[in-house]
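Exam revision sheet. Question 4 asks you to relate a sequence to its structure. Input first:
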Amino acid sequence: MTVATLELDDIQGLIPRGYSTLKAAGFLVLAITDPATARPALAQLSRRVENGRSEPSGTAVNLAFTSDGLRQLGLETADLGGFSEEFVSGMTDPNRSRFLGDVGEDAPQKWRWGGPTTPPVHALALLYARDPQALDRLEAEVRQDVLARGLMEVVRLGTTELTDREPFGFRDGISQPLIEGLPKAKAVRARGTVGTVGEEVVKAGEFVLGYPNEYGLLTDRPQCGHNGSYLVFRQLHQDVEAFWNYLDEETRRPDGTADPAAREALAARMVGRWPSGAPLVHAPTQDAPGLASDNAFGYFATDPDGLSCPLGAHIRRANPRDSLDPRPGSAESIAIGRRHRILRRGRTYGPVEPVGPVGASEPGGPGGPGGSGDGSERGLHFLCLNANISRQFEFVQHTWLNNPAFNGLYDAPDPVVAPRQNHRATFTEQARPLRIRHTGLPQFVSVQGGAYFFLPGLRALRSLCTDTRTGEHR
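Answer key, structure tokens:
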């Protein structure tokens, strides 16, 4: 079978690399105030954009645009015709907001940025560095390049130092798709384990435009789309104290005292993994740190009824693995799942230590795993890359995470990340002889801002800022 050769020199580095060695990051959300002045400034910035050929050692810059930003750069409506409808209409389109669950307190009208009542968003500069000091220098240089030169800073979104933990205290980033044509995917092929659950190699065209996707086709793309990708950005506030306080109240002993072990076990069942990262499918009763990186598991053969990992657990929704119809447990089921994968590139923000229930006590200090209730704001700058926003990100969000009837359940959206839409939800632990139902789950994650961006290939990026007929800035 022929494997497409990725043009890494023309692909922005965020797609194949992820910058795991660059621990510091900051995101500058920009608006174009004067297109004629902004184009040469962006052209200058584009020369700093990192490609995907190798892992950068010091800093990296990537650059993306909303559909309104592309219009500001001179693309006419006809030129935008090749872009996907969801990108052109944007994340805050009223129909799209309802589809994504961005209603009520999560409605775009209440967002801090990216919404209809906030300044327009046209561009996104993604900045990465090996440490905070290098990031400060990089940000200062980028600001000097673009600010007051036809662009204004809408908001600066900072991050915490990159670790393997998300704010609720669980290990994150374990299950990522392997992109065909990159070294990790080649290693899987060399081992002969392609198709094994947890080691699926996904066609490059699911993430990069211009290459065959999982249907064996080229995803629709505009003329300037080759080697580009759609970037979904959502700022998600995580109410860490509410999460652990709910679990604390739900697992109190009959005499009213806290039960830290029961609290952690219920949290693990809602997530589908223990805080260490060990999956419940292989460690159903207690944490097993030795399995922290375990990703080689399915559900159909080992846990079809959810007795180890509940049917509504977060990881079971985000990646159903081998449990999808029409033939659960088959290679066909796994292949269907590959058509809905996303490439996550998120970074957390807020204090580093996770927070538990205020006043709770256990080794490592008050609260949940190692933290204390300090009221600080924490969350995730959720970033994901996909070639088809509708079939990938939006499908996962609407059909798997937010769906209250997922896996035959009732009134049970994702217990961790889904919006509640004006009512609390239910989480069910499948068990014998009787299931255990936890009612009244509040909302733990809320949307603070977001937008759909296009991350062009490097040749297209420079062309957007340069008149290709004259070689001059447009």
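Marking note for examiners. Residues 238-340+394-449 form one domain.
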